[in-house]
Amino acid sequence: MAASVTIALPSIGKEFAVDAVTLSWIATSFILSAAVFLIPLGRIADIRGRKKVFIYGGAIFGAASIMAALAWSAEILIAARVIQGVGGAMLFGTGTAIISSVYPPGERGRAMGINIAVTYVGLSLGPFLGGLMTQYIGWRSLFWLIAVLCCILLLFTLLKLRSEWAESRGEKFDLAGSVIYGIGLIAVIYGLSELPAWHGFLSLAAGLIILLAFIKWETVTKSPVLDITLFLKNQVFAFSNLAAFINYSATFAVGFLLSLYLQYIRGLTPGGAGIVLVSMPLMQAIFSPLAGRLSDRIEPRVLASSGMALTALGLLPLVFIGADTALWYIIACLVLLGGGFALFSSPNVNAVMSSVDKKSLGVASATLATMRLTGQMFSLGIAMLLISLFVGRVQVTPEVHPQFILSLQIALAIFTALCIGGIFASMARGKTR
């Protein structure tokens, strides 16, 4: 879904005649919605049952995919993506927790590596199949395919996943904290998207204040939706989540920006752009299981930090991209990025899930997924801000190609700097074992 929709954005923009900033909201709306609901739904999963929440999430995601396939305007499509985000939060917040509930710490890294590899097999197929489907059948076919896959997901879950996990059953759900958290996060992301306008700064400042109030509330309420002590007293948990946030902040918008670059600047078809972009998730799919197995024997701090450094090496050459940059050069950078991300991701997930007890696995899984999604939103926010500053709210035509390339170069420079800083955050987590 993530990879194929990114490839389809120019085609969606052409049909609905919308600008690049509006197009970015088709990606951002899903991520924002998922991020807002992840931690509350992860907590509900710990209380009511992870399998139950997982099943409801698949059903909501499938229904929203049908709505997206039938969308008659960009606004309706964005609304469908928001609903998809709710379903996605229910899936993201429980999947990793269920795996952690089944596998003991000594085998968890291997299981996480397989799980992440399967994720990136999907991301590898996304640009290629999504590009071909968009080119020959139309972008709506992507959402119909996802609806069918959701039906298959529900069938397998109902038939094969027989156990249930709810270690916090009977505890109260912190509704007030969830509402405060959601409002604060929405205000922050909306503010980022509206910068440098004055109301963007106002929304960002208000959102940060609200999130501070949320943290204060969570320290005094009896049954918090997010146990703040996990961050204050658990160094591995805190810095592993910070490293995840930085890594996704530095990498997620690369696919979005390069998809626009390859199709608008280089004139590639959606299928052609997909073939170029598939190199990064393909490397992630190949090396994630190996990195996961290694993290059961080697300190995740060492592996994840090495992966962050390799990611920075992949980002740095992309800063110098131009209108005539050779495609092999771009692919080589994406291969480095994919290898670095694979080396970072599985060990980092293993470190997070091994640093908490079973009672907190749902919240830990949801927190890690929230770091991922807020990092992705921050990454897209940087890209949206730079496009707004240098290109404006116009369609990407040849007249604005130089401005678009400049915004792309500056974004990649910022991402490289973030990734270099992430190496130190990853190292600061200390020893897991």
Describe the structure in your own words.
This protein is mainly alpha-helical. The protein has 2 domains: 2-173 and 225-427, Growth Hormone, Chain: A; 174-224. 81% of the residues lie in helices and 0% in strands. The longest helix is centred in the N-terminal third of the chain and has 32 residues, at 105-136. The protein starts with a helix and ends in a 6-residue tail after the last helix. The relative contact order is 0.16. The model has no long low-confidence stretch (mean pLDDT 84).
Q: What's this, in brief?
A:
This protein has 433 residues and is an all-alpha fold.
Q: What's the overall average pLDDT, rounded?
A: 84
What CATH calls the topology of the largest domain is Growth Hormone, Chain: A
Q: What is the architecture of the largest domain at the second tier of CATH? A: Up-down Bundle
- Taking the alpha carbons of the first and last residues, their distance comes to 36 Å
CATH structural class of the largest domain: Mainly Alpha
Shape: globular
Tell me the total number of β-strands.
Answer: 0
The named CATH superfamily of the largest domain: MFS general substrate transporter like domains
For the biggest sheet, the summary is:
none
Note the beta-strand portion.
Answer: under 5%
Number of domains: 2
Strand and helix order: HHHHHHHHHHHHHHHH
Residues in helix, %: over 70%
Structural category is mainly alpha
- Low-confidence residue ranges: none
